[in-house]
Amino acid sequence: GSGDHTASTLLTLETANLAQLSRLFSKIEGMRGVINVSRIGDGASTKATPPADVARS
Length: 57
What we know:
Largest sheet: none
Number of strands: 0
Order of helices and strands: H
Helix content: 10-25%
Strand content: under 5%
Distance between the termini: 20 Å
Oligomer: single chain
Shape: globular
């Protein structure tokens, strides 16, 4: 963002376990143009409703 020709995307994903999450991160990191993949949060949670301010496409 901020004029540097990049964009940030926030995704909410459900995985069966940390091994699956690790494989997913590796695949995303291997995509052309991806600079960084990171995890935000403390781990397992129940299905949550996305915040109202999150745009749906």
